[in-house]
Specification:
two-stranded antiparallel ribbon, 4-stranded mixed beta sheet, 8 strands, single chain
């Protein structure tokens, strides 16, 4: 899929999908809810995870902590079904708009972004928000 010989103009303006993985072979994947637009999860994909996502229509990630391919929802049943995949200007990140089959976060929250950072006299604290 990737073609490192593309010029900057080809990469940024052309029609060829050529994801640019980092030195560890990963790119950032941001998943948003297709209806609300809320950010559900940010994780990483390697080539295998990206290919599996595009082929199956279900979001896969590369688990850095477990060192293996991970189908989101494989144990919970809360799959993320792909509606649309967008790539950023230099093709080193993807935005996936998905339909969630349930809570996205392993904590049971709808989104992994369920706490806001607030600052005060004692320093930053986390406050739960409705997701």
């Amino acid at each position: 899929m990737a073609d490192q010989t593309l010029s900057t103009e080809e990469r940024e303006q052309g029609a060829r999908f050529a994801p640019k993985f980092d030195a560890a072979g990963l790119l950032t994947a941001v998943v948003t809810d297709t209806v609300s637009g809320a950010v559900l999860v940010v994780a990483h994909m390697n080539r295998e995870a990206l290919d599996a996502t595009l082929e199956s229509g279900r979001v896969h990630f590369w688990s850095r902590s477990r060192g293996k391919l991970w189908l989101k929802g494989e144990t919970s049943g809360h799959f993320l079904d792909v509606v649309e995949v967008l790539v950023d200007c230099d093709q080193d990140a993807v935005l996936i708009r998905a339909q969630a089959a349930g809570p996205t976060c392993h904590t049971g929250a709808q989104s992994c972004f369920y706490r806001r950072v607030e600052t005060g006299e004692g320093g930053p604290v986390l406050v739960k928000v409705k997701t």
